[in-house]
Design brief:
The structure holds 2 protein chains of 2 kinds. Chain A is α/β, with parallel strands linked by helices. Helix content of chain A is 40%, strand content 24%. Chain A is built from 10 helices and 10 strands. Chain A has a 6-stranded mixed β-sheet with strand order 6-7-8-3-9-10, with helices on both faces. In chain A, strands 2-1-4-5 form a 4-stranded antiparallel β-sheet. In chain A, strand 7, helix 6 and strand 8 form a beta-alpha-beta unit. In chain A, helix 3 packs across helix 4 and helix 8 crosses helix 9. Chain B is mainly alpha-helical. In chain B, a hairpin with an 8-residue loop joins strand 1 and strand 2. In chain B, helix 3 runs parallel beside helix 7, helix 7 packs parallel to helix 11 and helix 17 packs parallel to helix 20. Classes of the chains: A alpha/beta, B mainly alpha. Chains A and B meet through helix 2, helix 3 and helix 4 of A and helix 12 and helix 15 of B.
Chain lengths: 254, 560
Amino acid sequence: MPAVEMKGIAKWYGKILAVDNVDLNIQQGEIFGLLGPNGSGKSTTLKMLLGLVQPEGGSVNVLGINVQEDPVAVKRQVGYVPESPRLYEFLTGIEYLDFIGDVYGMSAEEKRERINEYLRALQLEGREGDMISGYSEGMKQKVALISAFLHRPKLLILDEPLSGLDPRSARIVKDLLYELKAQGVTTIMSTHVLEIAQALCDRIAIMYQGRLLALGTMDELRQRAMLPDSGLEDIFLKLTGTGDVRAVVEELLK
Amino acid sequence: MNWKNVARLIRIDMKAGRLIRGRRLARFRESKLSVYLLYGGALIIGLAVGAVAGFIYNTVIIVADPELGLLFHQGLLDLFLSLPTLVLIYSLVFTMMQQIQRSGVKFSVQSPYWLPITWEEHTLASVFANLLGFPLVSIIFTGSAIIVLSVFIGQVAYAALTVPALSASAFMASTITEILRILQVRFIGAVYKSTGRAAIWVRFAGSLLFFIVFYVVYFFFTSGAGAITFVQTVASAQSAVWFVPFVWLGMTLFSFINGLFMQAFIFMTLSLLFILSLYYAAVMLNKRFGLYEPPAITVSRGLYIPRTGFLGKLGFSTIEAALIRKDFKAFTRRRELMYIFIVPIVIMIVPLMQTIGTMGGQLPTTPAPPFIYGFLFIMPSAIIAMGLGNMLIGEEGEAVWRIYSSPISARSLVKSKYSFLVFFSALVTMVTTIVGVAVFHPSFRAIVVALIESLLLSFALGAVSLANGIKGADFTELPRPRMIRPKWSIINLVTCALTTFAVLVPFIPYLFQFAQSSPIPTMDPYQALAISAVIASIITLVAYRLALRNAREFIAKAET
């Protein structure tokens, strides 16, 4: 059973076609990267996996459950970090995580254990009793990430997960994703940092103007772009047709 | 001083108001007419009011009764004389109110601090911006009315001096507001630091106290009797306290009208120096504390131990209990939500003050008419139920993604939100009943009827407003949390008014009986209470189902 199965999904925002007939199959235990320029439909696609955006065509199945039919059952098994997550700033870090634990039905003992472990790992110890309004952006991102990992989800949907993290915490999160992959946890992440995608992801999809432009492993993408020894940045720029950066820079320097 | 920078900053503040009004501008340019319409309207109405008052003075009062005309003339001069001091106090109240309401705007215009703009420019722009809206409208209206009226009463020179004095008073008030704003931020920071873990409750109690004192003062100055007494006091007492800098503008006018031109000149110079010193004090404070950020509030320390809580024992699921606990923290920690607690307190305090005032400072000793008791002590909990229902979904703000992405069903969401608002309304009912019994000594029957009716109304209004609040939720947070779309706020007001009427309808005959002017026969209030309970239950049930349906739609259509 695939972790994610999207068939012919589409989404319009007024006259703008945000997602155009996308088919996607993601296997369990896979780390899947979703790349694309701003406004290419990545976040909309990720939100559809949770039932946060209703597709106007096609179907979305997550872990064998139809999202439109039973979104709550899907949400129970998913950990989600949106792009620039807004937290309840009037709560302390610990209160927020306690709230998350309760929402996902964790036992008191499990909550205590896991929250303390994560706080220690991401160096939030000592600040967990402060109101989130006093946290830096990086600290807020750590709290958002912990809230996604806390209940041992089977699928992680992470929109720019490493944004604002210090190098140590970023490394911990990356290693954690590898470990979770070994345990069969699927991760779908969107990022603009192409080095991270190249290093972390088993397969990568490139979206452009709502369509799935390319999909495959790094080798498959290189073949597709006919750039055999190139990195993801060159492949991305070539496939999305946004590679005219030299001319743009020269224009700006005039 | 770069005046263009000052003008640019003021324009930013004016434009930030768009967010408050919720306007979405499709075009880069907007009509200047619409921006200045409010002020233009105040000018035209002021001119018209001045002309009508002058016309009545010349053609009716003087012709009908010359003695009355003289009294009227003297009264007007007294009013002109007191205006600078009055404007100072009223502007201070209103600019402070603007500060409270527009704190989000202030937040959104603080971003250019890294730009090459001096603190002098920032402070001056902020002082002018504080005056935008109602304070400026009042000054334009009063000034234009005075100018026109002065032509009719032959006091043009006096009016010509009064109008700049009014403007200077308003500027002074706004500068004081700016100083208080900066000091308040610094003071709050010091309080957080010194009170440690108790900071959260100190802030809650302090904010409530501040709002209550502010609104009592506000209602005193704006309610009929208090306002008239105040004007009379200022007019008569101003000269006695000439050494207080805040009345120097009024003293300038007083000296001028009495022909003491040298004295007038001295007071005018002193006034200008005082305003300048206030402005520079504001600049200095801004330089020192303008970028000060209060320290983070620490609520708890030590190893985390989860608490089970008693909500589970009351039949709430873990998710529902978590949502209720989260909302409780929101309403005791978020300043914009604490506001909801002020409304019932102010509703109780203002009539209590008036009652005690009319009794010569004494509490009444005889039982109050049941209608008055019932009204005063049913309304606070009804209003809190209506207000909470209206905002309980919208208060989630931009963090609402958490609700959308978590496994929270519509049933759990509605149950937790409704229980929360019913709990708070019931709490307010208990408090108002205790205060009501202590102050008004109602009969036992009146206590029972008011108490049960208050709860019934809270249940019904809570369900109705929650259904509306879910449908019209607005999660915009800047410049201030909006929580409900204006259209749905109005719909909620109308439906809640209809609900209140429907629930209270059985008591109409009793009201007539109280008035003792109706042929309707005496009716036992317990019968009315029973009928009212049936009506309230039906409304509650229907509205609760509607809230559930709206919640299902709300969760399913997360994108909107």
